[in-house]
Amino acid sequence: MPEGRLFSALRALAESGVEFIVVGGVAAVLNGAPIATYDVDLVYSRRPANIEALAGVLARMDAVFRAQPERRLQPAASHLAAGGHLNLLTRYGPLDLLGTIGRSLGYEELRSHSAEFEIGGGVRVCVLDLETLIEVKEQLGGEKDIAVLPVLRRTLSEIRKPRTSQK
Amino acid sequence: MFGLFRGYAYIMADSDGRVEEPAPLPDYSEDGVDLTLIRWMLSLTPAERLQFLEEWADDMLANRELNARG
């Protein structure tokens, strides 16, 4: 398959053994929702070993903070451990790292609400399920989140219908 | 082949005038969501969905760049 930027970013993280869950728009698309997005949103485990692995792969991806890319400020392990939202720019495009989403839901809480998806080339990533993605967007309640809810809800309804053609 | 709009039904006829079955109307939910698009997405594998998104995003970014250049 052609290796686009989103795929390459996810593959780099997966192959480094980083524990993360794909959330946001890419999770919606992987679950079958026809929406558009340009960036990858991930919730990551804040276990020390994972922070170390994540910091390593981010360095290899040339990750810098997106707010002032010209300053080339690189995310440090301390930034990752703090668990806030890190809006980064990598060689593969925008990457948002989230310590928690919604009502302070972190990696451990979300793990049981996610499933592994094969995204090509044998790469498998953990993706938040559509039910939880909808709940989180309802909790956030921002205009951007509300705008996409009808499509997410209808996608979930279609998934729940018995259908033989779905893969 | 030519197409005719008759009311809301799209009728296709070949050069011999044989009329094909009208295509079904787009299937929208009551809140305006295009269900045909969702069903099409669900017919793809997750890898194909990601690939489609990648291609769409690349096309949009390329168009934006072209327009920015004037």
Account of the protein in words:
- The complex is a heterodimer of chains A (167) and B (70).
- Chain A is 43% helix and 20% strand.
- Chain A is of the alpha+beta class.
- Chain A has one domain: 2-Layer Sandwich (Beta Polymerase, domain 2).
- Chain A has a 5-stranded mixed sheet with strand order 1-2-5-4-3.
- The longest helix of chain A is centred in the last third of the chain and has 18 residues, at 143-160.
- Chain A starts with a helix and ends in a 7-residue tail after the last helix.
- Chain B contains 2 helices and 2 strands; from the N terminus they run ββαα.
- In chain B, a hairpin with a 2-residue loop joins strand 1 and strand 2.
- Chain B has a two-stranded antiparallel sheet.
- Chain B has one domain.
- Classes of the chains: A alpha+beta (167), B alpha+beta (70).
Short description:
Helices cover 43% and strands 20% of the residues of chain A. By secondary structure, chain A is α+β, with helices and mostly antiparallel strands. Chain B is of the alpha+beta class and 70 residues long.
Describe the secondary structure blueprint for this structure.
The complex is a heterodimer of chains A (167) and B (70).
Chain A: H1 5-15, E1 20-23, H2 24-30, E2 40-44, H3 48-60, E3 64-65, H4 77-82, E4 85-90, E5 93-98, H5 107-111, E6 114-118, E7 124-128, H6 130-140, H7 143-160
Parallel strand pairs in A: 2-5
Antiparallel strand pairs in A: 1-2, 3-4, 4-5, 6-7
Helix pairs in contact in A: 6-7
Chain B: E1 2-6, E2 9-13, H1 35-43, H2 46-69
Antiparallel strand pairs in B: 1-2
